Amino acid sequence: IMTKAVMEKCLKVIAATTSIKIVDITGGAPEMNPNFRWFVEECTALGKKVIDRCNLTIIRANPKYHDLPEFFKKHKVEVVSSLPYFSKSRTDSQRGDGVFESSIKALQMLNEVGYGMEGTGLILNLVYNPSGAFLPADQDSLEADFKRQLKRKFDIEFNSLFAITNLPVSRFLDYLL
What we know:
With 177 residues, the protein is α/β, with parallel strands linked by helices.
């Protein structure tokens, strides 16, 4: 966990460097850092765009995080979240039982405050990262499938889907062997 002292040093660099326009925060569940909200507030006060690589399940995991959608909206934080697939079986098999349902509820909460909705300026992007010994399909086709399925099944909207491949080479070799 990044300490507040380190965050303060980061803010000094961010404030002193005009070429820094975006602060992209990640870390598994960066919202769990006790100084996360303070840091976002400080960054936006400096006029910087903030992106949160949000772990969707954190929004539903603990009541103290249920207000994150409103907090994000207040500070116009761009939200980028991983969703392994638009089905329960594939998502839960990759991330654990209950992750899909929790992620869907969090996405609906984000939609309720305007995230992913046309004309709001509140950006909600999803990340597709397949597991296994294969590359993801065409990003545009995947995005169209995700948008269609999530809208039809759960009335969820989002802006873009990013397809990435993040597989350690040694794990891939083990899989092939």
